[in-house]
Amino acid sequence: MKSPSFHNPCIQVTNIKVWLYDFEETVDKGLKEYAFVTMNINADFTPIFTFNTKAIFVSVVVEYETTSYNRNQIILWSTTITNSSTARIKSHKTLNRYSFYDITPSFNGVNGTYTLEWNVIPIVGMIKYGRADSNEEKFTCAFPNI
């Protein structure tokens, strides 16, 4: 599905902090790095709303490669838009809503690409997928070393 024509969605990462945690009482024992991402999100999904739109699920996804795994994708933030009056997202200094850590113990030397994605859930019919595909609508940056 094409990007909304009224306003191109964009994501801008303003800050990434990586902290080291020790998990002794969980399955993931040992030291692991957790990333905390601060981002600005700006998108208008009003043009997508029609008489057949029940909801739009919007998410920010980070994609990165490590030496162990070629493609890693993690959802950092999401929201569900249920009517056209709340279809404009203008969020500043938003923190990731979901935990951000990797299977490997470190993010050292890894670049991540942040993308805004959405699913249009219709009242009748198939779910449609959309993604901000152009380079201006993606944001790439490196994880800091700790």
TrEMBL record:
Topology with respect to the bilayer: Single-pass type II membrane protein
Presence of the UniProt keyword Endoplasmic reticulum in the record: yes
GO cellular component, one term: signal peptidase complex
One example of a Gene Ontology biological process annotation: signal peptide processing
Subcellular compartments: Endoplasmic reticulum membrane
Keywords associated with the record: Endoplasmic reticulum, Membrane, Signal-anchor, Transmembrane, Transmembrane helix
PANTHER family: MICROSOMAL SIGNAL PEPTIDASE 23 KD SUBUNIT SPC22/23, SIGNAL PEPTIDASE COMPLEX SUBUNIT 3
Similarity comment: Belongs to the SPCS3 family.
Designated name of the protein: Signal peptidase complex subunit 3
Species per Swiss-Prot/TrEMBL record: Funneliformis mosseae
